[in-house]
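Subgroup meeting minutes
Present: P.N., E.W., G.H.
Scribe: E.W.

1. P.N. recapped why we're keeping a running log of single-chain structure predictions: easier to compare across weeks, and new members can see raw inputs and outputs side by side.
2. G.H. added today's entry (453 aa).
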Amino acid sequence: MNTPAVSDDTTILDEKPRLESLVQHILDEARGQGASAAEVGVSAERGLSLTVRLGEVETVEFTRSGGFGITVYVGQRKGHASTSDTRPEAIREAVAAALEIARHTSEDPYAGLAAPEQLARDLPDLDLFHRWRLDTDAAINLARECEDAGRAVDTRIVNSEGATVNTHEVYRVYANSNGFFGGYPGTRHGLSCVLIARDGEEMQRDYWYDSNRDATALMEPGAIGRKAGARTVARLNAQAITTGKMPVLFAPEISSSLFGHFLSAIAGGALYRRSSFLLDRLGETIFPAWLNLEEKPRLPRQSGSAAFDADGLPTTDKHFVRDGVLASYALGLYASRKLGMQPTGNGGGAHNVFVSSTGESFDALLARMGDGILVTELMGNGVNPVTGDYSRGASGFAVRGGRIAYPVSGITIAGNLNDIYKGIVAIGNDADHRGNLHCGSVLLESMMVAAEG
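Output recorded in log:
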């Protein structure tokens, strides 16, 4: 899409010298006040978010923010403080507060920085900064174009929650007293549209959006609006279904949630707290033998890319699942020490996770399912991370003879993640690449589907 020029030629990149100097000053202050070790993260951010509703500008928000967080160690006692105030006196006060906390905290044998030899040294430029030269008038025009296209889809679209354009720039720096110093800029741009349709007494709401580090890669505003409109109208005239076990197809825009639960369950915090249904299950078969979950953290331009994690450790390609087998947990430094394992470069979470596909198109998966339910929206958070029990509200479409038949809403889908994962029949080639977890449509052998009431 087009990127209109603006007169302001400054970017968040101009903050780099100030942030790097600030980090060094904070570390020096921590040493000077008696910390045996310290780590600090600083950031500067700015952005624009604008919403047009029914053709009129509803909100315009310019943001500029920044600040720092300091963690200090006194031996193996740890304290943390943060502030948005970066004046010298505020830095002194924040460091003093962190040290006061540390001195009154119990010793933790697992606390502390990574050893120098563990820290990332190779820090490639991952091409994460793509400025969008967008002024307010241009943003208004884009939002109007998006909403107008959506509202024109069908006369039954009677209202709108608006079209929103946003652009965001950030520069982050992390450093510690063991010699690590790294920073990088990033951008995130997006466009969304939410519409409301009515048929008689029934009203339905749906949306569509796109998001990317590079605004030129976004869908055209009109295409986003038209997709939001088509999705909204398609939900009208929902019919009842019969409660029972049946095949379920998760659409690509929500299928990643299934694997989000998996990533939460293999995260270090859940494991050392013994609140994960995947505790002590490394080497076990969790998924079908054809399925792989691979992390690729250093891909250029991707939303989740990073050359180092929150501990300053290098990120690396790895399989969390290889041939259906749980091959690796996602461990930061502290969790790895608690568990007696090696860190995996996942302090702060996983980066760019790709779920393998069996190669079928969305239509082929519908045909393969035959009769069942296509889920396009999930509600609630009914997942028990300890047992894997899963129960969530949902809406979507009944599928009959391999074709979408009619919309359904107010249903509940339920099962256990252990069974759900092993019951994955196929994954489509229609992966949604807007987020950190890339996954196509997921066809499940069966789930319990309960009708409303």
